[in-house]
Amino acid sequence: MSLEASQSVADRFESAFSPGGSKDHLGKIFEELNDLRTNSKLMSGFNSTLNDGKNDVAGLEGFELVDKDSEGDLRFARKNGVRREVKPDGTVVEIWGQEGNNREFVINEQDGTATHKIRPGECVWNIAKDIVRERKGDKPTNAEIAEEVERIKKANPQIKDIDLIKAGDPLTIPKESVDSLTKERKLRNVGKVKEEMLKKGGVFDKVDSNQDGAITKDEIKQYKDSNPSMTDDERKALDMVEERFDRIRRRAATERGETIPPKESISKEDIKIWADYRIAKIKGSGDDREEA
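^ thats the sequence. predicted structure below, dont judge the formating
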């Protein structure tokens, strides 16, 4: 398969999800994706077309195809760790929970809730536990889990006994839980980037090969290419800064009341200004959209 062909697959994938589009040919597209997912150049071509801002698939904005699992589902991920899958029938699901114990949730765009189909052996307590763990990024307390269970109970009045749910039953996750999970995850991700980039002797200082207090996109790319064994936290921080490089420069200049400097580099102070702005915005509205 050529690079142009991989971009054509992405175009047809997007068309299937567009208003008036047909998902009847998704099976054929899924088969074609088998030919490109082991080739990094073809994957890059597919993902660049998927995220070119034209005819984007709802629910997959900013996501990149990373793999196809044994059940035939396409796995997508964002650099901040959010995972979603596309089923062969076109259903987009978000994946929460620890690796090896993933739970699938269909996000309902209309009302902001999520739906989870109960699997054999599942109970609401463990589902609530996974939701709280995903929200906190840490082990939840029993009190936190119990509070989440109560929220789920109220969102599912059709279930008479929440402790006697059956496999196959749909379970609604309330909007409050979905919103707070998303909000806390955003805050955690930006906070980690800020911590990793600003600490003395951290990844910013390692990338700053000239030791002039500023880094460029080229320096970030060179460091990532020559240091494959860097920690996950370092890589995630550099990925986010590289992806938002121009936005960081613009935000820092705006907050200082300056024009954007001609030199395309950013300092630790620039990153701090951008991160503090993002954290304040997320806390205020939960909105993760940034100016282009």
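The mean pLDDT is 84.
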